C-alpha cells in the first residue's frame, strides 16, 4: 500500500539543462551575462514580442510593470479574487488600490460581464489572470480597456505557451508577465519574464530591475562594454542570472512537448471523472484557444463527496498523493480584509470555488500508471 509520495507537481529537468548549469558554473560568469542574452532572445522568438525582459520572478515583473505605469495614490487596478497573493500584493506595493471582479463559475477567469461595472474614474489598469493557463476572452477584455482608455497588465504566470484565437499569449496586447517558478510550465528555479509592445514600459522596467542603471552589467563587464554607468533613478535588483537562464534555455525547447503531455493528462482526468457526481469539472469556453494546463482544478461537490475540500486533501495525503490548492480567496486574507474592508460574501462565485477547488497531480513526467493511481485512490475514497 505504501507507494512513493506522488507530488501534485514536479519539474522536468533534462540532462542537457543540468549540463548547461554545470557549464555556466565552470564559465566563471554566474550573474546576468551571455546565457541570459541567449535565453531572452529565444523567449523573444517564442513569444513573438518586440520587447522581452528576463527577471528574478513574475512577482517582480508585475511590481516593476505597475511602477512603470506610474500609479498615483488612489489609482485603482482591477483584478480577480481567484489568484495568488502576489497579484494583489504588487498592486499595493506599486501604490495602487486593488479592485476585484468576481469570476465566471465555468472558466474560473474574471467575469468580463461584470468588469465594466467595476470601472471608476480612478481605474488605471486591468490585471487579468489566465487562470490555470486558460486565456481570458482577450477580444472582449481589450475592447473594454480601449473604450475606457485603460492599460492591461496580464498576469500570465500560468499561461506560458497558451494561445487565444491562434495567437500566443505574449504576442499581442499591452504587457504580459510569465512565471518560471518550479511548479509552472517552464521553470528556471525561480524566475520570470515580461513581454510588452510598449518601449516606454520596457525601458522603465529595464532600469528599475537593475539599480536604476542606464546600462546592463552585461555591457559593463563584457569585452565590448565600458566600466562606466549612470544611475538615473533608485532601482531594484531583479535581474535574472545566467545560472537560471542555463535551465531556461533547455526548458523552452521542451515547453510545447510539456504542454502536450499536460493537456493529455488533463483530458484523461476529464474523461475519467466526467460522470462522477463528486466533481464539477473545468469547462472550456466557446472561443478558440489553446489551454496551457498549468494546473488541473476541478471543484469538489461537498455533499456528494461526503467530505469537504480540506478533508479530501488530508485523505489523499494519507494515501501518499499530494494535492495542490490554488487558491484561497485573496480578499479574505487578514491584510486585505483589514486594509480594503473586503468581507465574506463580496465575491460569492470565487468564494464558493475557493472553498471547493483542488489541483490534482499534473506534471509532464507523470505516467499513466501514476494517473490511474490517483483515480483509484479517489474512487476508493468516495465509496
Ligand atoms: C506563480 C504566480 C505568481 C508569482 O510568480 P513568481 O514567479 O513565483 O513570482 C503570480 N501570479 C500568479 C497567478 C501565479 O500563479
| Main sheet strand line-up | 1-9-8-5-4-2-3
Rg for CA atoms: 21 Å
Query: What small molecules are bound in this structure?
Result: pyridoxal-5'-phosphate
Can you count the beta strands? Answer: 12
Biggest sheet features: 7 strands, mixed
Q: Number of helical runs?
A: 14
Unreliable residue stretches: none
Strand content: 5-15%
User: N-to-C terminal Cα separation, in Å?
Assistant: 18 Å
**What form results from the Cα inertia axes?**
globular
**What's the CATH class label of the largest domain?**
Alpha Beta
Q: What fold name stands as the CATH topology of the largest domain?
A: Aspartate Aminotransferase, domain 2
Number of domains: 2
Query: Structural class of the helices, strands and pairings?
Result: alpha/beta
Relative helix content: 25-40%
Order of helices and strands: HHEHEHEHEHEEEEEHHHEEEHHHHH
Label the CATH architecture of the largest domain: 3-Layer(aba) Sandwich
CATH superfamily of the largest domain: Type I PLP-dependent aspartate aminotransferase-like (Major domain)
The overall average pLDDT, rounded, is 96
